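Students often ask what a holo structure prediction actually looks like on paper. The answer is less mysterious than it sounds. You provide the chain, you provide the ligand, and the output is a string of discrete structure tokens encoding the 3D arrangement of the protein together with heme C.
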Amino acid sequence: MRSLKIGNTLVFFITMTLVLSMSVLVFADRPEKPDNYDPTDGWRIPPPVKNIENPVEANDQNIAQGKTSYERNCQSCHGDNGQGDGPDADGLDDFPGDFTDEAFKALPEGVLFFMIKEGKDDMPAFSGDLTDPQIWQIIRYVETLE
Ligand code: HEC
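The corresponding structure tokens follow.
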């Protein structure tokens, strides 16, 4: 009898855990692109960074290496095509951005470089994980997204 009761309790807890984790999956909404999407909204960008130029050439090799780094470090949140719809975007507080949007395309490269290096809230800072040339290569790849 006793072991049966323990068994029932166990089944109850396992069931509850499953139900709870499933509801988390169902309710973890992906943040939507705001109507007036402004990629710099809430970012504190030091004005001089907009003058930093990309020292990495936009050639096939750099774009291909940027793509590999993007797939490894960014795609999980930013999505296959940079539209903010990667699997890890579910449950984020802020929309991760739309790299194909005109407003995004208009940002100076130095601003992108600053954002990727420094991060903000759910956007990780990559200054420790990626070298400057790797970040510039990613920017070269991101510029090809449309
Ligand atoms: C864990 C998820 C996550 C990963 C991984 C991630 N980002 Fe982000 N990223 C975000 C979020 C969330 C924002 C929006 C931040 C905000 O506005 O508060 C963001 C914003 C940005 C922005 C500014 C655009 C905007 O609309 O805010 C750029 C540029 C960017 N990320 C590039 C990258 C690059 C390049 C990588 C990989 C090296 C990367 N991110 C990895 C979540 C992520």
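The chain has six helices and no strands.
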